[in-house]
Design brief:
Number of helices: 16
Mean pLDDT: 94
Order of helices and strands: EHEHHEEHEHEHEHEHHHHEHEEHEHHEHE
Number of strands: 14
Structural class: alpha/beta
Strand order of the largest sheet: 3-2-1-4-5-6-7-8
CATH topology of one domain: Rossmann fold
Low-confidence stretches: none
CATH class of one domain: Alpha Beta
Radius of gyration: 24 Å
CATH architecture of one domain: 3-Layer(aba) Sandwich
Shape: globular
Length: 434
């Protein structure tokens, strides 16, 4: 199929790079978002998310005239749905954004159009939810218009490269739909394009992230076991991974982001009776911030009564869900800070990639110095390069704190002890630098 104009609904971490990439490859693109602040920011030349290289790409797409920003869809040859799919308080998928996007497309749908759902979704979303909504146009899916599912499979911090180079799975509700999806994405995808059916493609995305979640869960359990047995889990991991068929991941404060911490619940929702392992892994990772809280309690300087955190001035460094990105979605670092605040601690948090934060429950500082200046204890929650490469002697000059808790194995150099800091690491079993 030949595509001249596409409409991308949702201009977040996936939709905006996708729309901009299509535009810089010569297609006319209308980028749509219902958030008026996002629309105005982009129209005024700003950017509402951080991703290396994205500003240059968006500016090039807008400057070419191929990308236009709007709060309403338009008629097009193809429509891409890239809206959020968060989960509700009871862990069920919130499909309201997908439903709304499909409903917004229906009035503009014409015979021969292609609609692609990219939003991570529970199995059968494409055929059971999206298709019926689009058929309100009185066109029949698979006959009058084509419908496919193609999950995003990119890593924040490397989205622009992986969007082009990664293999792309395209699942159609029939073969013609899958082939049309291949024609669309071959505009810029250099990785292998693999065709399947829509529900298999949905399952593939959920399997990938659930696999990661389960592996992180065992790493986090290993950190708890190492703590109990007096073993350094980081050293144990290094040695265990010398086995040719073993690759244990690193532990941390939990699991975050919109994918790994969310997607497994879509499978649990769809089949709660046969997903015991998945549910257990989710519980382990969701409980990890509480384990970090208890580690902090135990690390309080001698003389503090019963590990009480009430009134303790704690600097929390890093709030995003992973290193070197500004993405705060489902961040376990934020959960740790909330637990600390609930325990009575006075938390001053600093996130170098998003300094203008306002998170209820604790204070967010705009500079590292402001977070540290009155701290009694410092917690490293995210291994941002700017944080793990801090000079310990310079840090000692700007804070009275001499107790550090490192939950990501970022401060391992002996220079921290030499600068007078007492360092405790997650899963290290014993305290170092005493």
């Amino acid at each position: 199929m030949n595509f001249q104009k596409i409409c991308v609904l949702g201009l977040g971490y996936i939709g905006l790079p996708t729309a901009s990439t299509f535009a810089t490859h010569g297609l006319e693109v209308i980028g749509v978002d219902v958030n008026t602040k996002v629309v105005e920011t982009l129209k005024n030349g700003g950017l509402h998310i951080h991703e290396p290289g994205l500003r240059i790409l968006v500016q090039a797409a807008l400057g070419s005239g191929n990308l236009r920003i709007s709060d309403q869809p338009e008629s097009a040859d193809a429509f891409i749905i890239a809206v959020p799919t968060p989960f509700l308080a009871d862990k069920r998928a919130d499909m309201s954004f997908v439903r709304a996007a499909a409903g917004a497309i229906a009035p503009y749908l014409s015979p021969g159009n292609l609609v692609v759902l990219e939003s991570t979704s529970p199995p059968r979303t494409t055929v059971d939810i999206v298709a019926p909504i689009l058929e309100r146009s009185r066109l029949v899916a698979g006959e009058d218009f084509l419908l496919a599912y193609s999950p995003e499979r990119v890593l924040p911090g490397q989205i622009l490269r992986e969007l082009i180079e990664n293999a792309r799975v395209i699942g159609g509700i029939n073969e013609t739909s899958a082939l049309a999806g291949r024609d669309l994405y071959s505009t810029f995808v250099r990785g292998e394009i693999v065709l399947t059916d829509a529900t298999t493609a949905e399952m593939v995305k959920l399997m990938e992230n659930t696999y990661r979640d389960v592996n992180i869960a065992i790493a986090n359990e290993f950190s708890r076991l190492a703590d109990r047995f007096g073993v350094d889990v980081w050293e144990a991991n290094r040695l265990a991974n010398r086995h040719p068929r073993v690759e244990i991941l690193n532990p941390g404060p939990g699991v975050g982001g919109h994918c790994i911490g969310v997607d497994p619940w879509f499978l649990v929702e769809a089949a709660p009776d046969i997903t015991q392992l998945i549910q257990s892994a989710r519980q382990v990772n969701d409980q990890q911030p509480e384990f970090v809280l208890e580690l902090i309690r135990r690390t309080l300087p001698d003389g503090d009564s019963a590990g009480s955190l009430r009134g303790k001035r704690i600097a929390a460094l890093g709030l995003s869900y992973k290193a070197n990105v500004d993405d705060l979605r489902e961040s376990p670092a934020i959960e740790v800070c909330k637990h600390l605040a609930d325990a009575g601690a006075l938390v001053s948090a600093y996130e170098p990639y998003k300094a203008d934060l306002n998170i209820p429950g604790f204070k967010c500082e705009t500079s590292l110095e402001d977070a540290l200046i009155n701290a009694e204890l410092i917690v490293l929650l995210v291994p941002h390069t700017t944080l793990v490469t801090l000079d310990p002697h310079k840090l000692a000059d700007i804070t009275p704190a001499r107790t550090l808790i490192d939950v990501v194995n970022g401060w391992t150099d002996r220079s921290w002890q030499e600068a007078g800091f007492r360092v405790t690491r997650l899963g290290a079993g014993t305290m170092s630098g005493q």
